[in-house]
Amino acid sequence: MTELLQADYVPLFFAAVAVFCVTVYVLADGLDLGVGILFLFAPRDADRDLMMASIEPVWDGNETWLVMGGTLLFAAFPAGYYILLPAFYLPIMFMLFALIFRGVAFGFRLQATRFRLVWDIAFFAGSVLATFCQGLILGGLIAGVPVENGMFAGGPFSFLNLLGVLCGVGLVGGYALIGAGWLIWKTDGATQVFAREIAHAALILTGAMMALVSAWSAWSVPEVAARWFALPNLLLLAPVPLVTLAVIVALWRGIWEGAQARTFLLALALFALGLVGLIVSLWPYLVPRHVTVWDGMSDTQSVAFLAVGVAIIIPIVLAYQAHAYWVFRGKTVHEHGAYGGHAGS
Amino acid sequence: MDAVALSRLQFAFTIGFHILWPTLTIGTAWFVTVLSALWWRTGNTVYRDLMRFWMRLFALGFGMGVVTGIVLSYEIGTNWAGFSRSVANVLGPLFAYETMTAFFLEAGFIGIMLFGEGRVSRGAHFFACLMVAVGALISSTWIIAANSWMQTPAGAIADADGIYHVVSWWDVIFTASFPYRLAHMVCASFLTCSFVIAGVSALHLWRGQHVAASRTAFSMALWLALVLAPLQIVIGDMHGRNTMVEQPTKLAAMEGLWETTKGPAMTVIAWPDMAAQKNLYAIDIPHLASLYLTHSWDGEVQGLKAVPEADQPYVPVVFFAFRIMAGIGVVLLATAITGFVLRLRGRLFTARWFQIVTMATTPLGFLAVLAGWTVTESGRQPWIIYGALRTADAAAPVAAGAVTTSLLIFFAVYNVLLLAFVWFAGRVALKGPIDSSPAAREHPGMERSTLGAFTTSPVPSPVRGTDPARA
Asked: Does residue A333 sit within a domain?
């Protein structure tokens, strides 16, 4: 077992697990953050009731992947945890504040009578701010963080750059697109029409930002440009942007005509492609240009203990999370379970 | 203040605020699970109504626990990078296992528990409740294991750079203080919840509302309290004697004992003066501490002065927090016994003064939990890993200004949250367990919609049991 775990592919396995967790988080929480981003754009209160009801049973499971990402980083790649988290102190804190507000809005909005709008705004603003902060972190990561003696060595605003702002706006558009796709799938009637209409705007924003972020990171980070434009990488990697373009075209054409789940699935595919692009740009670094996944990994002892859990438990987790989605399959009907019933009734 | 002091303040505030919600939800999750089982097996609608009512309060508390918990999983990195670097090999996998085995389990079934009653059978609903309740216990097990390792580290050795490497996972998880801490915390949660349930039920009895359901809950809660209040004192005593062996300085701070003494007195109240290294204005009961700590008249107990002043915690905080916790324990025990006496005399549901007393005890469990954690965490200082790593060496390279900003926002946000929770939970509690109302009234927000898309479509509300076969 120990010999097996000392091989070079062990960091690869855990890097794959970490990428998997990030992917699941972005796709799953992307859909409910996206619904939150669209929340105030919806024309009627009835739409908002339905939008929230569609994600109520699953949002907690989605957000747990964020905790999984954090704890997995701590356990398997501690260098990433203790260098990157202080480096992104402010955006992480503001993301957490935002997630707090949108999280409690699920429970409190249905209880509220007079100040319902306050919780509507909390849910919307929390979703937008959390997403934007994730973009700032992403942009800061691509641009790189200052490291000395194995610890973060910058100031509180070292994370801030134009790339992060672009990523933030792009991520807001992208999550909104996933959210709109989810609503097209899970609702019907007026809410679905609203989702189809706003999906176009979200797609334009996402596509434009993906192009800008790609161009700007190639321009401002030479290592990224070298990765993409050197031969033979250029030819090998050419399919990534080409397939992305094809997905965007398919999305554009499918928003009104396609099958109900199509926009959602294509939006997920678009995000997956974005992640592939990101990994190409940053591989094999955990902390870009400073710590690789091989250098940043924890002890074999710890990784072995962790591997058992990951191999056995994560598939089970995926099975019952899928089951939870299955229980609430089909079009969402607005009804109230445990949060339900406001005091006025 | 420097970044370390600010980070300590922020962590203490955020973890102290967070612990309120697991305390509330561990116990209520099990109460809901028991009610779900009773409703499933007996078909008695009192159990169903109580289950739905407590599920609503549970849901509000659970949401608070989730969002304030995510904060902690990141704060360990953002504010305590030195600590993370040192212990990632040891504590990282424990936290990862907590997420995998507990948080996902809760998250996977919470939707079915809260919103799935109409979509799954009663048995499946009970199973979902059970998974959420089990998840809560698994979570406490891992997190107490991690905390216990910081108190009584074992099974790992530090290298020259101060990085810990695990030698034995068994020893890391089952440290000397782990079983006592786990039992003490889980019992505290159940005890706190039994008084929350008793207090809310007493409110309804006082107002003459929902009498059948409230009597059932009031009785169940006070039976539980009668068992748990003395049990908690026994566990606390065992935990204290374990602390005396494993962390003698912390125990000395709890007792306010400066000199190593044979047959020490119990200090009822005093002002522990750190500068003078002695107690001022002390009221002592001779030999009593010796009796409950060493179970002998003349047992020896180590005092604070056995270690240099730089290795002592700030004694007044530990000393008074311990007295608050123990004092509340005694008040809760007295309340539980009074309830039992009233029950024997057949006056449990009619003694109105006792209803006021129980209502007053509702928040006490939470205060005791906060005080208890204050004892154990500030009693560990100045160490973050007892005897091995100093808190001052564990901080992250973050600017004091950034921490001040986040601390101020946490303070504002959490106070708003607490107010909102008290407001909404208070309203749910006041409304009480009514559920036989017609389905049309169960669609809040509907009447506000200007378009008739939903009001015109007759959507049955399976959750509220409009189907007579289920209700």
From this structure: no
pLDDT digits (tens, 9 = 90+) for A16-38: 888 888 888 888 889 989 999 99
| Nearest neighbour of A107 by CB, restricted to B59, B76, B396 | B59
Q: How far apart are CA A206 and CA A211, in angstroms?
A: 9
* Structural domain boundaries enclosing A314: 2-327
Residue B196, classed as helix, strand or coil, is helix
CB-CB contact of B225 with B197 (8 Å): no
Q: Which residues of B touch A137 (CB under 8 A)?
A: none
pLDDT tens-place string over residues B372-385: 999 999 988 888 88
How close is the nearest chain A Cα to the Cα of B216, in Å? 21
Domain count, chain A: 1
Domain contains B469:
no
The one-letter amino acid at A184: I
* Residue B53: closest C-alpha in chain A: A338
Domain holding B225, by residue range, is 3-245+314-436
Question: For A70-109, what is each residue's pLDDT tens digit?
Answer: 888 888 888 888 888 888 989 998 998 898 888 888 878 8
Contact: A310, B100; criterion CB under 8 Å = yes
Q: Looking at the partner chain, which of A93, A314, A340 has a beta carbon nearest the beta carbon of B100?
A: A314
How far is B147 from B141, CA to CA, in rounded Å?
10
Q: How much is the pTM?
A: 0.83
Instruction: Kindly report the number of other CB atoms within 10 A of residue B77's CB atom.
Output: 28
Strand partners, B385: B389
> Across the interface, which of A78, A96, A156 has its CB nearest the CB of B74?
A96
CA atoms within 13 A on the CB side of B190: 22
Q: Which residues of B227-260 are buried (b: 16+ CB within 10 A; e: fewer)?
A: ebbeebbebbeebbbbbbebbbbbbbbbbbbbee
